[in-house]
Hints:
By secondary structure, this protein is an all-alpha fold. The protein is built from 2 helices and no strands. Helix 1 packs antiparallel against helix 2.
Amino acid sequence: MEKISKKRSLTKTLTYRVICTTETYLTILAVAWFIGDPSKIAAIAAGILLFTKIGTYYFHERVWAKIKWGRH
Length: 72
């Protein structure tokens, strides 16, 4: 069985968090620009992010599957 280093896991976690935080910020910014109503902004952003973060996680995993660093 392949062993994964702790550094790889931490790096993978940090890159995912930075990507998702940026995604959240840009989504809310875009929705706020078009809508302007705080309660609608929150509801629409949450709905959009529910689906986009699934895709983001999938592609993040696919990229990391190709990175050999930290595998033993």
